[in-house]
Please model this.
Amino acid sequence: MSELITKSALELAAGLKAGEFSSVEVTQAHLDRIHATEADFGSFITVTDDLALETATAVDAKRSTGANVHALAGVPVALKDLVVTEGVATTAASKMLENWVPPYESTVHNKVKAAGLPVLGKTNLDEFAMGSTTEHSAFGTTRNPWNLEHVPGGSSGGAAAALAGFQVPLSVGTDTGGSVRQPAAFTGTVGVKPTYGSISRFGIIAMASSLDQVGPMGRNVADAAALHELLAGHDPLDSTSLPDPVAGFVSAAQTSDLRGKKLGVIKQLRGEGYQDGVRDAFTAALDVAAAAGAEIVEVDCPSISYALDAYYLIMPSEVSSNLARYDGMRYGLRMEPESGPVTAETVMAATRAAGFGDEVKRRIILGTYALSAGYYDAYYGSAQKIRTLVQNDFAKAFESCDVLVSPTAPTTALKFGAEAASDPMALYLGDVATIPANLAGIPGLSLPAGLADGLPVGFQILAPAREDVKMYEVAGPLEAALEASGTRVLDTLAEGLTTK
Amino acid sequence: MTESSAITPEQVEHLASLSRIAMGADELKSLAGDLSTILSNVARVNEVAGDDVPATSHPIALSNVLRPDVVGETLTSEQALAAAPASADDKFIVPQILGEE
Model:
């Protein structure tokens, strides 16, 4: 294995700046790794070798002239295949968009291109980001590099597996109910769901618009923070984009310490009913934080018990609306009925039957039900009220602490074929700790906090809306304290892969 | 499961029709079971959401955003039609929408 692929993004950036290696060398090393391991991991739907090397060559040439380049210029990145890329196939892991090559560009890809990051490809996901395992993809499943018999989580499972498998140092996911944080937890990586509206959603294929958020991912907190800084900022093309200036997330992660920081353990998410190893790792991480000077307090967020229920009404309702655009008329798949009249209506029905997978259909039908006359107030209307209660609970909790913490997921990565993996409610319960942040629009981050039965455990940090910097001020020093205490998840991962 | 949250295959068929998704009998039956399970689990939202709680539809306050009414770049006809399932003469070809009569 080339040593270039085990370096962090910021180490690569420093090496590129110092002229120790070129972006072409870095990019080629990662492409080689992808081609050597893709049969095992299945992280990518599309690998864009030529495009990546073209960017790398251009960055090297620009740097050689002494011109100013972005701090991350030349560092490779992968994009979840929910991010629209002009001229490059964008599928959302669905048969519906199998052959779609977008005629326009997303703001996320525009920013990545402008900064000169070679894009290695488009990563696998659950179809239209619906799922928690990356098994619901029309283009095959992704496997967890820690143990190929286990799922990588989802829906940004490909993005997370590509990081954990050392195929790429940075990747971009999306998080609607935990789709960045949960796969980060399952793969021992760092996943961030920023404050809603802080990264443009223009050109991100919509699932549930009031919950979706682009999420930077890396193998350590500072790397994710650097990608977050690159992607954040106001975008006039997104009406929900916040006008706030971008804070110094990397600086916050690297220079702060835990002394005097108040970490609020959410009473309802402290680990009762969770897998023993997950609870133990979480408790041990709290002890490390306390030893490093943090104050641990318990906070009560009673409405969080209802957040999951509200989410599973609001999300499918928005799904049923957003996915109405896939009608077989203007782009994407078109199918004709096997028998009977060929009309716009029968073509739509045949197209959507053939183009959508089971989980997508289930959510569309559920959303259609929740929005139906007669059920709207009881389900969708009530769920929106729960959203108010969750926001109020968080606001009250943040009066007594800087950040809130919990295990990211109740379990470590599920095994393929596990009973829970085929039970929709059991899978939905896996999102219990991550969903409240999406309902309230607050930022959340998952970082590795050790192993349980040989698989990574995630530690979640939540901060008040628009105060993402507070999350990094705890995540950075906590990561350092955990590593100093011997909880070096990344080392275990790198050693395991090196000896494969 | 409460009586109100038990979904029948006939109800799923109606929802599928509203959603424009063709479904076979097995799929309708399977989805009816899934939906009944999910709805019985999420029905608790009624327990705490009283009349005194205002609804929140979005994490940030939304207001209508209008761009200046000036001519700008947009997709060309060629770009817009590039991914169309069928097109001709600079137009999308769609199946018959109106009836014969």
Notes: The radius of gyration of chain A is 21 Å. Chain A touches chain B through 71 residues (CB under 8 Å). The first strand of chain A starts at residue 44 and ends at 47. The CA atoms of residues 207 and 414 of chain A lie 24 Å apart.
